[in-house]
């Protein structure tokens, strides 16, 4: 993994790209754990996620059993196709419904990403001791940064680094299974159903990534 990160940083900082005809793949349905760590070392969030790749829905709940004083208490349901998301507080059954201004997120390679290369982390020749990933890069939606994403040959995201002028962080996915274990997590919770859509203040951008910036 570290070799791949180093390579990723190196490739992302150099402007050369391979002339290529690669098309970004799309991840399947997934359940697993996601961690978001700033490049300064702060753990921003760690918790379980559920992703519907066709329906373009993502639930992410940060796990308060792993408290660090920099982590955010988050429970997000993002409906990318509808362009809205919910911030859920299950403790007091409250919910906020907001508009998404940007749908970029770390579980899917954006269609306009550029293929960089294929790398073997660990050993390519010893069974079970290596992982082969393809590395993609592109601009963040506001053009004030870029990302570098690596996915397995089956298109499971391993990690994505976001280098942004306001903050840089790495998102990594672990214990991924290619099914939706609990579909109820992708249904809008009852406390959210009657919620009016909140107005987005002028100058605010709502997106999955902005939750960590
Ligand atoms: C992914 O999950 C959705 C929602 O549960 C389901 O409708 C869809 O068929 C699943 N896709 C695959 C390829 O299993
Ligand atoms: C939080 O982590 C604990 C310990 O790993 C686990 O038992 C629990 O189900 C997790 N909760 C959530 C909401 O992910
Ligand atoms: C977080 O913890 C570190 C070390 O324990 C401490 O130096 C820092 O002030 C804490 N930050 C906050 C916001 O409490
Ligand atoms: C629910 O709790 C959160 C913080 O714990 C608070 O910000 C929010 O205002 C509360 N909502 C209601 C409706 O009490």
UniProtKB/TrEMBL annotation:
Keyword Signal: yes
UniProt keyword annotations, A-Z: Signal
Superkingdom of source: Eukaryota
Biological-process GO terms, alphabetical: cell-matrix adhesion
UniProt signal peptide: 1-19
UniProt record similarity statement: Belongs to the ependymin family.
Name of this chain's protein: Ependymin
């Amino acid at each position: 993994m570290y070799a791949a990160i180093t390579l990723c940083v190196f490739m992302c900082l150099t402007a050369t790209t391979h002339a290529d005809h690669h098309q970004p793949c799309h991840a399947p349905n997934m359940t697993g754990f996601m961690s978001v760590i700033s490049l300064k070392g702060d753990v921003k969030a760690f918790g379980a996620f559920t992703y519907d790749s066709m329906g373009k829905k993502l639930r992410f709940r940060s796990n308060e059993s792993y408290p660090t004083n920099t982590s955010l208490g988050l429970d997000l349901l993002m409906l990318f196709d509808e362009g809205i998301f919910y911030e859920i507080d299950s403790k007091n059954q409250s919910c906020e419904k907001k508009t998404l201004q940007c749908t970029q997120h770390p579980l899917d390679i954006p269609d306009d990403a550029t293929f960089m290369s294929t790398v073997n982390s660990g050993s390519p020749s010893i069974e079970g001791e290596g992982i082969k990933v393809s590395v993609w890069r592109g601009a963040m939606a506001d053009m004030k940064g870029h990302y570098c994403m690596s996915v397995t040959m089956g298109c499971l995201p391993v990690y994505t680094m976001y280098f942004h002028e306001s903050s840089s962080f790495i998102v990594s996915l672990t214990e991924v299974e290619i099914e939706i274990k609990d579909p109820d997590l992708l249904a809008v919770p009852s406390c959210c159903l009657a919620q009016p859509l909140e107005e987005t203040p002028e100058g605010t951008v709502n997106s999955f990534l902005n939750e960590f910036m």
